[in-house]
Amino acid sequence: MTPTEYHIPALLEETINGLNINPKGIYVDVTFGGGGHSRAIIEKLGDKGRLFSLDQDIDAWANRLNDSRFTFVHSNFSFLKNFLRYYGVDEVDGILADLGVSFHHFDDSERGFSFRHDSRLDMRMNRDSKVDAASIVNSYDEEQLASVLYLYGELKQSRRMASAIVKARNAGEITTTGRLVEVVSPFIRKSQEKKELAQVFQALRIEVNNEIDVLKRLLNQSLEVLKPGGRLVIITYHSLEDRLVKNFMRSGNVEGKVEKDFFGKVNTPWKLINNKVIVASDEEVERNPRSRSAKLRIAEKVQSL
Questions:
Q1: Tell me: the pLDDT tens digits for 124-183?
Q2: Domain assignment of residue 82, yes or no
Q3: Measured distance CA(99)–CA(160) in Å, rounded
Q4: Helix (H, G, I), strand (E, B), or coil: what is residue 117?
Q5: Chain-wide mean pLDDT for the chain?
Q6: Of 81, 183, 207, 256, which has the most beta carbons under 10 Å away?
Q7: How far apart are CA 26 and CA 294, in angstroms?
Q8: CATH code of residue 164
Q9: pLDDT-above-70 percentage for the chain
Q10: Residue range(s) defining the domain that contains residue 46
Q11: Statement to judge: residues 7 and 95 lie in one domain
């Protein structure tokens, strides 16, 4: 599989421009995937520049760059600070996170990320993880399932879906994507079938991979490892993620609590590079339909902690 088949990076030019790359700098791509963003970063670096790219999915290892300035780290990005220290790095000039799921994950029928394939309910980014989608579907109580489907899938029929899942599994465990689709389909509008099924699978994927908590840990660590003047560049695809990133960049904390000084000025360690979120152009969406929901936010660290 070529890197392009693995994943087409969204908002590539805007992302690289947002990093404001110093050729001698140290950068981190915490979502390596097919390596599209990493390749573009390497092209901007000089001989003394360095790039660390993380991915918890070992499949991404095959896309690693053959470059002395590049280091691939097989890890979840919630451990970013620890791995940088392991490699003797205390501060970096830029951090990039593309929180979208790779084409590879959706298209690999064995991974269980898509309702288009009838396969085992899996959805683990890290195949070594003990929690998969099947274990959640078959062990969470009705209230927990409804909460996951509502918070992460924004599904209005979340309670009815959760109830149906619990009733269905009493007759036998729900272990395949096809069976799950069969159970929730009565509560899906035919006119919105693909969209709402995608929301069901999105909700379970976020829960399986603990994506919201992992993102919070990344955001907090970004303040610790970025140099003053360093850039944080994040692409989100889900309203909950985007809201979290937006509030963090405005306030400096994951709670989004804004603190002001005596004169009413907001105390924040960030300077927003784009006040208005950056989205894909019509031309990019036509080339890469999956970029339609991509939202890019950029902030620069303005002070040390």
A1: 988 888 999 999 999 999 999 999 999 999 999 999 999 999 999 999 999 999 999 999
A2: yes
A3: 29
A4: coil
A5: 91
A6: 207
A7: 25
A8: 1.10.150.170
A9: 92
A10: 3-103+211-301
A11: yes
Instruction: Flag whether pLDDT at 206 surpasses 90.
Output: yes
* Residue 167 structure tokens: 């009733």
Q: Report, in this order, helix, strand and coil percent for the chain, each rounded to 5.
A: 45, 15, 40
Is 163 a member of any domain? yes
Same domain, 169 and 219: no
